[in-house]
Backbone:
C-alpha cells in the first residue's frame, strides 16, 4: 500500500470490482466566506475537500482512492478497510494507491478515510451493503438511484463476477425507466451476492457503479399460490396518467406488472389503431416508445397486464404540443422599383405561435408608419417599392415552448433581363413522376417568362402543367407523349432556351417479397422480380434487414443475391427474424417492397426448475418457459424418473403429465418411499424442445401399501395342486421397506372355513393336496414393515386339471350332399374346464366311383392309400353339434367325438360310419385341339378330377362365332366314358368356334370346360434362325413356332462388296431347314426375311475359304468357261423335252411313285421321331392362335430330301407340298392325302 504518487511499474490488467458505496459527510466552513478574515496561522479543524467515490479497477494503475482535507495544523490521514486499520497513518497525503507486490484482489472491500489534527477528526461515512431477503414467488424491486444528469444515463444491471455478466432480462425480470430492477416473481435462482447498477453517461464517456445489493430468495411452501397482476409502474392506485410531449421528442409509456405466474402485457389505442401510430413495443412489451412523436400520436392509450388469475389496466392520455415551426418562409429576392412585394411568413405550433416583424432588427411597431406597407395574416405587403425599401426584414414566431426567427432581404434595383439556365438541357423522367424544366431569369424588373411546347395547344391549358414564379415549368404525372422539346422565352426580349424531355417507363416490382415462415437451420428465399425501362442501363438492387443494408457474402455464407433480384438467406437462425425490404434503384427512380422472415423452431427447454413441499407426498414443480421461437408453446410435458428402486443403468424418464402451454407449474402427488427427479419439455407446432435440466432430488417417507396386486388368479397345471399367482407390483409401489405378499385361500363352497395364509416375496404360491379342479377363494395382500394394504377382494381359482375321463355319447349324423351334421351328448367327467370337442373324420375307402372302375381298369393301388389322412374338426365351447363341410361325394367316412380341456383330449366315442351320395361330376380336366385339315378338328380331353360318382359319358357342344347373329349349338353325346376325343368335319376354316365338353353321371351333368379355337393357324416366317457357314453355302435351321406351320417365304441375300440383291426359292416354315447354295467362298453376305413390307429377320454371315482371284484377260474371255456353259444349256433343253413328253402321256412322276411308297413305309416310324423341340402333336387350337386362312404349304424338295429323317412330305400331282410337319405327337387323322390345291390357295403364294 502506498500514498500519492505513480506506481513504479505496470502489471497485466485484471478485473476487480472495488465497491465503495460511500456517503460522505458534507463539511461546512465555520464562517461565512468573505464575512470574516481568518489569519493563516489560526488553528482550524480538518475539513474534507476531496473524498473517494466507488471504483471499479481493472489493474493496479486504476486503483486510486483520493482523500484530501484542509486544516491547521496539517491533518494526518489513515484508512479503515472492512472495519480494520489498513496501512500506516500518513501526514498531509491521504490518497490511497495499490502497492506493486500486492494482488489486486486483496484491495476489494469497503473503505473509510479519516483526517485528523489537534482540533478533531473528519471522516467519510460508509453505507453498509444492501441485503434483501424474500420468499419464492414474491415480487421485488432493486433500486438504482443514479446521479442526476441533464442527459439521463443508460442503466446496466450486472453481477459482480470476473466477466461482469449482464443480468438476463425477461418478462419476469425488467429494468425500468427509473433504472430500478423489477422482479415480477422471485425464483431460487435469483439469489445472488452482488447485483450492481451501472449508470452509463454516454456524453461524458463515464460509467458509475452503484452499491452492490445482495438478494437472498428463501424457499416457500406457498410457491403454488397465485397472485393477480398489479403494477410496479405506473405507481399509485390511480388507473390513469397524463403525459405531455413535444413534437419530435422521444416519449416512452411504461407498464411493469408483478404477479404469479408472470403477467403478460398488451397495448391498445383506445381512440384509434395502434398500428397507425409511430409507437414501438420493447422491453418485453413493457414499454411503448415513440422515438419522434408526432401530432398524430396523441390520444388515449391503455396497457393491460394479465395472467390466468386476472388482469389490470392503466390508461395514458398523451397530449402532443409543439414549439413553433415554419409552414411557409419568405424568400430573399431582387425587385424593380414600382413592384408590389409580398413576404409570406407562416408558422405553426401548439399553442399557435404569435408572428412579429422587424426591419433591420427594429420592431415594426417602433418604425414610422408607411402607407405603402401593410400586414395581413402571416404576410407583410409592400406596394410600389422604392430603392429606399431595400432592407433585411425579420419574421419571428413565438409560443410558450420557444421561438424561431427568419431573416429575408429585399433588394430594389434595376437590371436588364437575362436567362441564367443552360440551353439544350436534356431532362429525363419516368411515367407518373414529376419533372421541373428550369428557366431561371434574372433582371429588375423581374422578367416575364413563357413556355411553349411542340404542339400548338397552350401548355398551361393542361392541368398537369404549372408555371412557377421563378420561371420553372413543372409537369405532374408525366406521360410518354410528354416527350419532346420545350422552349422558354422572355417576353419583350429576344431571349429563349430549349429544354428536351425524355419520358421512361416506370420501374415496377412485379413479385414482392413475401412474409415467409422458415424452419431454423434451413434456407429462406425472398423474391424481388422487377421491370425497368431497357434504356436505363445502370441499376442496383439493395436488400435491407431492419432498414440496415445487407452486403452479399461468399457463396457458402449468409446472404446470396441472384440476378433476378432474389435474396437467399442460408442457415437461418432466430436473429434472422426481421422485416426485409428490396429496393430497385435506377438513374431516374427507385421502388421498394417489403416482406419478412419469421424463423420458427421447436422451443427452447424450460429453465429454473424448482420443487416446493406441499406435504409428505405432494410437491409443486415450477419452471420458466424458454423461447418459443415464433410458434406459441402448446403444452408442457412433465417427465419423472424414480431412482431409489432401480439401478443406475435402468433409470428412465417416464411421462408424468401434460399441462397447457400457459401453465408454468404443476402440483405432483408421488409415491411414498421413492426418490424422484423431474424435468419439463416444451412443445409447439414445430415439435418438442430438448428436456430441461433435471430438478433436485426429492425423497418421500415410507407408508403402508396403498394398493394390492392386480390379476390375482389360479394358473394350476398339475392335478391336486393349487397355483396362485398375480401381477407383481412395481418397486415404486411398495411404499416402504421389507415388502412381501400375504396369500390367503379357502375352499369356495366352505363359507365357514377359516382362511389359510402364507407369505412370499414374489409369485407364484403353491398349495398341495387340493384335489382335481377344485374351486377355491383366493386373495393376495401387499404388506411392508409399516403394515398391510387395504383388505383385498377374493377371487375364484381352481386346482389343477386332468384329462377328461369320459367320452361323449349318442353320436348321430345327418348327411346333406358334401356336408354332414354331427350331434352328440355332453361328456360327464371332464375333470377340468371344458374347452370343447374334437371330431376326427376319416375316409375309410377311396371314392366309390374309383372302386367301381378299379376292376375294369385292372388297377391295383397301394393299400396304404385306401385310408385317407384323418381330418380333425375342433368345436370350441359347450356346443354339442357341428356341421362338417367339404366332404368328397360318393365316399365312405367314419368319425368319433372326444372332449378336451387344457390338459388334453379325453377318450374318443366309438366310430360312427356314414356315406356321401353320388353327385354331378366336375368339368373335364383339360381340352385341346388338333387340325388335320382345313375343315376338320380333333378334340382331346381328359376325365374330370372329381367325378363324384360313376361316369356315364360326355356331351360335346360347339358353336360357330358369327358377329351379326347367334349361331346354334351343335351337340354330340358320347355314351362311352373311356372315349376322350372326337373328330369334327366340315368346319368353316375362316371362322372360330366355341367348344364345350361336359361330363355326366347318374346325378346329372357337370359344368363344362370351354375353349375357343379354329381349324387353321396364322403363321409368320421364322426369326430364330441359326446359320452354319460353308464354303459356298449357308445351312439355315430353325424351330417352327407352335402357330407358324406351312408358311411360305423367301430369303433375300446380298453380297457385301460388288453384289446385287438376290432371292431364294420359296421356303416353307415347317421345313425347319434350308441350304442357301451357290455362294462365293470367303465372302460376307447380308441375309434378310421380309414380312408385311418390313424386315422380319436379318443376319450377317461369311462363307469359308479364300476369295477367288480374277483371271487375266477378264472373266468373259475364257474359252473353257464358254464351252461349259453351252453344254449345261443343251443338257437342260433335253431334260425339258423329256418332261413335256412324260406329261403329255398322263403318267405319274417318278417322285410320286416314291412318295406313295414312303407313305406306307415311313409314315408310322415318323410318329416318334423329333426335330429339335417341335411337336405337331403339342399344337393347340385356341383363341390366341387364329386360322391361317389358306396360307401356302409349299416346300423345297431338294432341302427336304437331304433332311428327310425329320419331315414327312406329300405332294399332289402338280408337285405342290401338302404335307404337315411331323414331331413327337401322333400323326393327325386325315393327313395322308389331300385334294389338289385350289386357285385361292395358289394365289396366296406371293412374296412377302
Residues:
Amino acid at each position: 500500500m502506498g500514498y500519492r504518487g505513480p506506481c513504479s511499474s505496470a502489471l497485466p490488467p485484471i478485473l476487480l470490482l472495488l465497491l465503495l458505496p460511500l456517503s460522505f459527510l458534507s463539511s461546512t466552513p465555520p464562517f461565512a466566506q468573505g464575512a470574516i478574515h481568518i489569519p493563516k496561522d489560526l488553528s482550524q479543524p480538518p475539513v474534507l475537500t476531496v473524498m473517494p467515490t466507488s471504483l471499479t479497477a481493472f489493474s493496479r494503475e486504476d486503483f486510486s482512492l483520493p482523500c484530501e482535507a484542509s486544516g491547521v495544523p496539517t491533518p494526518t490521514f489513515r484508512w479503515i478497510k472492512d472495519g480494520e486499520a489498513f496501512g500506516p497513518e500518513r501526514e498531509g497525503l491521504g490518497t490511497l494507491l495499490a502497492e506493486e507486490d500486492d494482488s489486486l484482489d486483496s484491495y476489494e472491500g469497503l473503505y473509510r478515510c479519516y483526517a485528523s489534527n489537534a482540533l478533531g477528526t473528519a471522516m467519510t461515512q460508509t453505507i453498509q451493503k444492501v441485503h434483501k431477503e424474500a420468499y419464492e414467488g414474491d415480487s421485488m424491486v432493486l433500486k438504482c438511484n443514479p446521479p442526476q444528469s441533464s442527459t439521463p444515463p443508460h442503466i446496466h444491471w450486472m453481477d459482480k463476477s470476473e466477466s461482469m455478466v449482464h443480468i438476463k432480462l425477461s418478462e419476469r425480470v425488467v429494468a425500468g425507466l427509473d433504472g430500478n430492477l423489477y422482479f415480477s416473481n422471485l425464483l431460487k435462482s435469483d439469489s445472488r451476492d452482488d447485483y450492481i447498477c451501472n449508470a452509463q453517461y454516454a456524453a461524458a464517456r463515464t460509467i458509475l457503479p452503484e452499491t452492490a445489493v445482495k438478494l437472498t430468495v428463501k424457499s416457500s411452501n406457498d410457491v403454488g399460490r397465485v397472485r393477480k397482476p398489479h403494477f410496479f409502474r405506473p405507481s399509485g392506485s390511480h388507473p390513469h396518467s397524463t403525459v405531455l410531449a413535444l413534437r419530435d421528442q422521444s416519449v416512452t409509456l411504461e407498464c411493469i406488472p408483478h404477479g404469479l405466474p408472470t403477467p403478460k402485457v398488451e397495448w391498445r389505442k383506445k381512440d384509434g389503431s395502434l398500428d397507425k401510430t409511430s409507437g414501438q413495443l420493447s422491453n418485453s412489451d413493457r414499454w411503448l416508445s415513440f422515438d419522434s412523436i408526432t401530432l398524430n400520436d396523441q390520444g388515449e392509450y391503455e396497457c393491460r397486464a394479465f395472467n390466468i388469475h386476472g388482469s389490470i389496466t392503466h390508461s395514458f392520455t398523451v397530449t402532443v404540443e409543439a414549439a413553433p415551426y415554419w409552414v411557409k418562409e419568405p424568400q430573399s429576392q431582387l425587385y424593380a422599383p414600382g413592384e408590389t412585394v409580398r413576404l409570406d411568413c407562416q408558422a405553426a405550433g401548439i399553442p399557435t405561435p404569435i408572428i412579429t416583424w422587424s426591419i433591420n432588427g427594429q420592431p415594426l411597431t417602433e418604425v414610422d408608419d408607411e402607407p405603402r406597407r401593410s400586414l395581413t395574416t402571416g404576410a407583410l405587403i409592400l406596394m410600389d417599392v422604392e430603392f429606399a425599401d431595400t432592407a433585411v426584414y425579420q419574421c419571428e414566431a413565438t409560443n410558450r415552448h420557444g421561438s424561431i426567427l427568419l431573416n429575408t432581404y429585399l433588394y430594389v434595383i434595376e437590371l436588364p433581363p437575362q436567362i441564367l439556365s443552360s440551353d439544350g438541357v436534356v431532362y429525363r423522367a419516368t411515367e407518373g413522376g414529376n419533372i421541373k424544366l428550369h428557366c431561371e431569369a434574372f433582371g429588375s424588373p423581374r422578367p416575364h417568362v413563357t413556355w411553349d411546347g411542340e404542339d400548338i395547344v397552350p401548355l398551361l391549358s393542361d392541368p398537369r402543367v404549372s408555371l412557377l414564379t421563378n420561371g420553372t415549368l413543372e409537369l405532374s404525372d408525366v406521360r410518354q407523349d410528354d416527350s419532346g422539346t420545350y422552349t422558354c422565352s422572355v417576353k419583350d426580349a429576344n431571349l429563349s432556351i430549349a429544354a428536351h424531355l425524355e419520358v421512361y417507363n416506370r420501374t415496377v416490382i412485379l413479385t414482392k417479397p413475401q412474409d415467409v415462415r422458415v424452419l431454423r437451420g434451413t434456407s429462406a428465399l425472398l423474391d424481388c422480380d422487377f421491370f425497368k425501362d431497357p434504356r436505363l442501363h445502370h441499376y442496383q438492387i439493395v436488400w435491407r434487414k431492419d432498414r440496415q443494408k445487407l452486403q452479399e457474402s461468399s457463396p457458402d455464407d449468409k446472404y446470396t443475391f441472384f440476378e433476378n433480384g432474389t435474396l437467399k438467406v442460408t442457415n437461418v437462425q432466430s436473429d434472422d427474424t426481421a422485416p426485409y425490404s428490396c429496393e430497385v434503384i435506377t438513374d431516374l427512380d427507385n421502388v421498394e417492397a417489403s416482406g419478412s422472415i419469421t424463423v420458427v423452431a421447436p422451443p427452447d427447454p424450460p429453465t429454473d426448475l424448482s420443487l416446493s413441499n406441499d406435504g409428505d407426498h405432494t410437491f409443486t414443480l415450477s419452471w420458466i418457459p424458454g423461447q418459443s421461437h415464433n410458434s406459441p408453446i402448446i403444452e408442457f410435458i412433465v417427465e419423472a424418473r424414480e431412482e431409489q428402486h432401480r439401478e443406475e443403468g435402468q433409470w428412465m424418464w417416464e411421462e408424468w403429465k401434460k399441462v397447457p402451454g400457459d401453465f408454468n407449474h404443476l402440483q405432483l402427488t408421488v409415491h411414498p418411499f421413492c426418490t424422484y427427479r423431474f424435468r419439463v419439455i416444451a412443445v409447439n407446432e414445430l415439435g418438442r424442445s430438448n428436456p430441461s435440466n433435471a430438478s433436485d432430488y426429492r425423497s418421500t417417507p415410507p407408508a403402508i401399501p396403498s394398493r394390492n396386486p392386480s390379476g390375482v388368479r389360479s394358473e394350476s397345471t398339475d392335478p391336486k395342486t393349487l397355483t396362485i399367482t398375480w401381477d407383481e407390483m412395481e418397486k415404486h409401489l411398495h411404499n416402504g421397506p421389507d415388502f412381501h405378499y400375504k396369500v390367503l385361500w379357502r375352499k369356495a363352497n366352505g363359507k365357514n372355513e377359516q382362511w389359510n395364509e402364507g407369505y412370499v416375496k414374489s409369485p407364484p404360491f403353491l398349495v398341495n393336496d387340493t384335489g382335481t379342479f377344485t374351486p377355491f377363494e383366493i386373495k393376495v395382500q401387499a404388506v411392508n414393515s409399516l403394515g398391510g394394504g387395504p383388505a383385498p377382494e377374493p377371487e375364484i381359482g381352481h386346482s389343477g386339471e386332468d384329462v377328461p375321463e369320459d367320452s361323449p355319447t349318442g353320436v348321430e349324423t345327418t348327411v346333406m350332399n358334401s356336408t354332414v351334421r354331427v350331434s352328440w351328448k355332453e361328456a360327464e367327467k371332464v375333470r377340468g374346464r371344458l374347452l370343447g370337442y374334437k371330431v376326427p373324420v376319416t375316409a375309410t375307402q377311396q371314392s366309390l366311383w374309383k372302386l367301381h372302375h378299379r376292376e375294369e381298369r385292372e388297377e391295383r393301388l397301394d393299400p396304404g392309400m385306401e385310408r385317407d389322412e384323418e381330418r380333425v374338426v375342433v368345436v370350441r365351447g359347450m356346443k354339442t353339434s357341428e356341421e362338417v363341410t367339404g366332404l368328397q361325394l360318393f365316399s365312405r367316412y367314419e368319425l368319433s367325438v372326444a372332449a378336451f380341456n387344457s390338459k388334453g383330449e379325453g377318450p374318443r366315442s366309438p366310430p360312427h360310419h356314414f356315406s356321401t351320395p353320388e353327385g354331378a361330376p366336375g368339368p373335364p380336366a383339360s381340352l385341346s385341339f388338333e387340325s388335320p385339315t382345313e375343315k376338320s378338328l380333333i378334340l382331346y380331353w381328359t376325365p374330370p378330377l372329381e367325378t363324384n360318382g360313376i361316369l356315364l359319358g360326355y356331351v360335346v357342344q360347339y358353336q360357330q362365332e358369327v358377329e351379326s347373329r347367334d349361331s346354334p349349338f351343335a351337340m354330340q353325346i358320347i355314351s362311352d366314358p373311356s372315349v376322350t376325343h372326337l373328330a369334327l368335319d366340315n368346319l368353316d376354316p375362316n371362322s372360330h368356334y366355341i367348344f364345350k365338353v361336359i361330363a355326366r353321371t347318374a346325378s346329372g351333368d357337370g359344368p363344362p370346360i370351354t375353349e375357343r379355337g379354329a381349324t387353321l393357324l396364322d403363321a409368320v416366317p421364322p426369326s430364330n434362325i441359326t446359320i452354319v457357314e460353308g464354303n459356298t453355302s449357308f445351312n439355315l435351321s430353325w424351330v417352327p413356332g407352335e402357330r407358324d406351320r406351312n408358311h411360305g417365304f423367301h430369303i433375300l441375300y446380298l453380297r457385301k462388296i460388288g453384289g446385287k440383291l438376290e432371292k431364294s426359292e420359296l421356303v416353307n416354315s415347317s421345313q425347319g431347314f434350308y441350304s442357301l447354295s451357290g455362294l462365293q467362298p470367303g465372302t460376307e453376305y447380308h441375309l434378310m426375311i421380309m414380312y408385311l413390307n418390313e424386315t422380319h429377320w436379318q443376319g450377317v454371315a461369311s462363307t469359308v475359304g479364300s476369295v477367288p482371284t480374277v483371271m487375266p484377260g477378264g472373266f468373259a474371255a475364257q474359252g473353257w468357261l464358254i464351252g461349259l456353259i453351252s453344254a449345261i444349256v443343251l443338257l437342260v433343253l433335253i431334260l425339258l423335252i423329256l418332261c413335256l413328253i412324260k406329261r403329255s402321256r398322263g403318267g405319274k412322276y417318278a417322285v410320286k411313285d416314291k412318295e406313295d411308297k414312303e407313305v406306307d413305309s415311313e409314315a408310322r416310324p415318323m410318329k416318334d421321331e423329333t426335330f429339335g423341340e417341335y411337336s405337331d402333336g403339342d399344337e393347340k387350337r385356341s383363341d390366341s392362335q387364329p386360322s391361317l386362312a389358306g396360307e401356302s404349304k409349299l416346300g423345297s424338295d431338294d432341302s427336304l430330301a437331304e433332311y428327310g429323317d425329320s419331315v414327312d412330305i406329300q405332294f399332289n400331282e402338280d408337285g405342290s407340298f401338302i404335307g404337315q410337319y411331323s414331331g413327337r405327337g401322333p400323326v393327325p387323322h386325315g393327313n395322308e392325302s389331300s385334294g389338289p390345291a385350289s386357285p385361292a390357295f395358289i394365289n396366296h403364294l406371293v412374296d412377302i
User: Anything to note?
Assistant: The mean pLDDT is 81.
